[in-house]
């Protein structure tokens, strides 16, 4: 297996979660020496390691955090130091097998409130050396020196650790303000570790929950070229019946972990309060992210290798495409397929939209990974029975490449001409957490598949004549956490053949305009349809701001919505804000895709009046 430094260059890694939290949850008293359990209750420790391995952790940490002579003396266990440390490695290695790395966990000797004194250095160094030598001899893959608050002690431990020839990660603990208890700022800490030749990787762990950990990572990443690992707590604990319980959900924890990966963090895991459930949700989500998962390579057949076919021009693909080609504003309303087999209410909503002059019905594919009636079946019914065009979302989550191609060909044969190609939400973030995601390709790869079909070639390089004439739409997120990464992803879609884009709901016109300027500077000039969401209440706005990936709601909008005291006031204000958004971006977009919150189509239509 490659070492930790090689692996972090290839992909972000998933670290395991809390050990102490899990031990405590098994009924072990807090005054017990948790490291001693490696020899007194190895089955318990092995079971916890195994849970994290099965949850998808790429790195399993040894249960040796406080297994140094000074800490063990407090429990009267100093004479068992070697046995404890060796057992900690064996238990972790057994769970890791050949699929995961084993990190030798070493914590600080000094308490956070103590002062590091130079005359202590020799004793501390010898104490670290004794533990590190055992962990190295027993075969850890690298050292994780974690939860340090004194930078001098961390550097001393790293200096000793480096003598054993293994990669050394140093992980510091800072508070919400980005400072240690002694007031040292995160910028000073990172610069010091960046310049320390004994430190191969840098970490932030413990002390804060996911949101604050993300903020600290934002400050730290620009200051280092070394791989960074962030292991946040599960939020802030609350006392419930005498126990400290962490109230944050795995989905909340995962959302911030994904944002950290998008920032450039190369490893994420959990500290206090986290469990295998957090790691499982996080692992499934992150391992399916574009740039992390290895997708099937899709060749382009749009050059001279393609058969001689009559490629259908944009203006002839469908009415929606014709308006885009003429530079006229297009409009669509998003209507979600029902959770039942009765399509009549949906068809009635679509008829209302047609009567109002809307160009197309936007039909999402399993939004938030929930199960509804097939969006393709719904789209076919809408076009057949209502006579209005549809924009069918098609995601890469649920089908393999062969199945997706079959759907595209079948849908086209049935009359569907307009697809919005998206990667899709991992199932763990939806209603069916035990479902598995396929993700043979992402939105870029599937866009290339459709482009090939439009040029008369299937994914295997076999000719298809006549070719399809699918209008290829893709998603865009002007408010992405990492703008440059999103912009490059957007350009990759355009290069793969995207003909227009629909954005995430826009609440900050300036963010959209910056994105469009940046895309145009790179040659990414395709028509962009702006996503618009009429808010209905402050709670609705708050949910979008905190829980929906890719949507940013400015504080000024939240403050305005907070002034709405009744349901009617909330809806009226939401429509007003949506109209303001449309007006602010009118001269830069090709049209509007308006959502119908909670299925209330009238709200969307009022925005477009």
Automatic annotation (TrEMBL):
Associated pathway: One-carbon metabolism; tetrahydrofolate interconversion
CDD domains, A to Z: MTHFR
Alphabetized Gene3D superfamilies for the sequence: 3.20.20.220, Homocysteine-binding-like domain
Keywords on record: FAD, Flavoprotein, Metal-binding, Methyltransferase, Oxidoreductase, Transferase, Zinc
InterPro entries given in the database record: FAD-linked_oxidoreductase-like, HCY_dom, HCY_dom_sf, Mehydrof_redctse-like
Protein's GO biological process: methionine metabolic process; methylation; tetrahydrofolate interconversion
PROSITE patterns: HCY (PS50970)
Protein residues bound to Zn(2+): 206, 271-272
Pfam families: MTHFR (PF02219), S-methyl_trans (PF02574)
Cofactor(s) essential for the protein: FAD; Zn(2+)
Transmembrane segments: none
Hcy-binding domain segment(s): 1-286
Classification via PANTHER family: SLR1189 PROTEIN
UniProt name for this protein: Bifunctional homocysteine S-methyltransferase/5,10-methylenetetrahydrofolate reductase
Protein source organism: Pontiella sulfatireligans
Gene: yitJ_2
């Amino acid at each position: 297996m490659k070492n930790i430094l090689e692996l972090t260059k290839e992909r972000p890694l998933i670290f395991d979660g809390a050990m102490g939290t899990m031990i405590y949850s098994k009924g072990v008293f807090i005054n017990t020496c948790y490291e001693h359990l490696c020899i007194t209750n190895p089955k318990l420790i092995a079971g916890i390691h195994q849970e994290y391995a099965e949850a998808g952790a790429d790195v399993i940490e040894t249960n040796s955090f406080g297994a140094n002579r000074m800490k063990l003396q407090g429990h009267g266990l100093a004479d068992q130091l070697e046995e404890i440390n060796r057992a900690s490695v064996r238990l972790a290695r057994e769970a890791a097998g050949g699929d995961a790395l084993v990190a030798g966990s070493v914590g600080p000797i000094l308490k956070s409130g103590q002062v590091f004194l130079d005359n202590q250095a020799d004793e501390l160094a010898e104490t670290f050396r004794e533990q590190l030598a055992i962990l190295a001899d027993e075969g850890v893959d690298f050292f994780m020196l974690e939860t340090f608050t004194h930078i001098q002690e961390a550097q001393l431990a790293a200096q000793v650790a480096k003598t054993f020839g293994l990669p050394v990660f140093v992980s510091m603990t800072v508070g919400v303000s980005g400072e240690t208890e002694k007031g040292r700022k995160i910028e000073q800490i990172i610069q010091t570790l960046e310049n320390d030749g004994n430190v191969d990787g840098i970490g932030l762990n413990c002390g804060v929950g996911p949101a604050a950990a993300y903020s600290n990572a934002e400050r730290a990443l620009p200051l280092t070229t070394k791989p960074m690992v962030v292991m946040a707590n599960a939020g802030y604990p609350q006392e419930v019946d005498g126990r400290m319980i962490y109230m944050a959900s795995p989905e909340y924890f995962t959302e911030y972990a994904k944002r950290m990966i998008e920032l450039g963090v190369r490893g994420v895991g959990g500290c206090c309060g986290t469990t295998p459930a957090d790691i499982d949700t996080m692992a499934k989500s992150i391992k399916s992210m574009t740039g992390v998962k290895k997708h099937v390579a899709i060749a382009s057949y749009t050059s001279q290798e393609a058969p001689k076919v009559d490629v259908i021009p944009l203006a002839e693909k469908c009415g929606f495409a014709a308006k885009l080609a003429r530079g006229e504003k297009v409009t669509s309303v998003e209507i979600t397929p029902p959770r039942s087999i009765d399509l009549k209410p949906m068809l009635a909503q679509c008829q209302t939209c047609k009567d109002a002059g809307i160009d197309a019905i936007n039909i999402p594919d399993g939004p938030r990974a929930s199960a509804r009636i097939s969006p393709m079946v719904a789209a076919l019914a809408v076009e057949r029975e209502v006579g209005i065009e549809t924009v069918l979302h098609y995601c890469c989550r649920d089908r393999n490449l062969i199945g997706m191609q079959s759907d595209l060909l079948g849908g086209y044969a049935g009359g569907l001409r307009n697809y919005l190609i998206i990667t899709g939400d991992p199932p763990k973030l939806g209603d069916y957490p035990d479902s598995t995601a396929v993700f043979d390709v992402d939105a870029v790869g599937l866009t290339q598949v459709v482009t090939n079909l439009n040029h008369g070639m299937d994914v295997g390089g076999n000719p298809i004549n006549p070719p399809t004439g699918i209008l290829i739409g893709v998603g865009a997120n002007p408010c992405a956490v990492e703008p440059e990464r999103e912009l490059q992803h957007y350009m990759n879609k355009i290069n793969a053949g995207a003909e227009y884009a629909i954005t995430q709901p826009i609440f900050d016109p300036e963010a959209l305009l910056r994105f469009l300027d940046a895309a145009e500077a790179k040659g990414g000039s395709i028509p962009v349809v702006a996503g618009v969401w009429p808010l209905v209440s402050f709670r609705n706005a708050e949910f979008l701001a905190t829980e929906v990936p890719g949507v940013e709601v400015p504080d000024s909008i939240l403050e305005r919505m907070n002034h709405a005291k009744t349901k009617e006031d909330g809806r009226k204000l939401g429509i007003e804000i949506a109209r303001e958004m449309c007006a602010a971006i009118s001269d830069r977009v090709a049209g509007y895709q308006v959502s119908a919150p909670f299925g209330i189509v009238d709200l969307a239509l009022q925005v477009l009046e």
